[in-house]
Amino acid sequence: MVRPSAWALSAVLLPVVSALPANAPWKQGHDAQGKRQYYSPPVDRAQAVIDTFKLSWEGYYKHAFPNDELHPVTNTFGNSRNGWGASAADALSTALIMGEREIVNQIISYIPTIDWSVTSTSVSLFETTIRYLGGMLSGYDFLSGPLAHLADNPAHVDALLEQSVNLANNLSYAFQTPSGVPYNLLNLSTRDWIREPNGLATVGTLILEWTRLSDLTGNSSYASLVDKAESCLLSPSPASSEPFPGLLGTDIDPTTGAFLDARGGWIGGTDSFYEYLIKMWVYDPSRYEVLRERWEKAADSTITYLASRPLTCPDLTFVTTYNGTELQLTSEHLACFDGGNFILGGQVLGSSKYLQFGLSLVDGCHATYASTATHIGPEVFGWDPSLIPAGQEAFFAQNGFYILRPGYQLRPEVIESYYYAYRATGDTKYQDWAWDAFVAVNATTRVGSGYSTIRDVNVAGGGGFEDMMESFWFAEVLKYSYLIQVDDDAPWQVSKAGNNKWVWNTEAHPVRVYGQ
Ligand SMILES: *[C@@H]1O[C@H](CO)[C@@H](O)[C@H](O)[C@H]1NC(C)=O
Ligand SMILES: *[C@@H]1O[C@H](CO)[C@@H](O)[C@H](O)[C@H]1NC(C)=O
Ligand SMILES: *[C@@H]1O[C@H](CO)[C@@H](O)[C@H](O)[C@H]1NC(C)=O
Ligand SMILES: *[C@@H]1O[C@H](CO)[C@@H](O)[C@H](O)[C@H]1NC(C)=O
Ligand SMILES: *[C@@H]1O[C@H](CO)[C@@H](O)[C@H](O)[C@H]1NC(C)=O
Question: pTM (2 decimals)?
Answer without folding.
Answer: 0.92
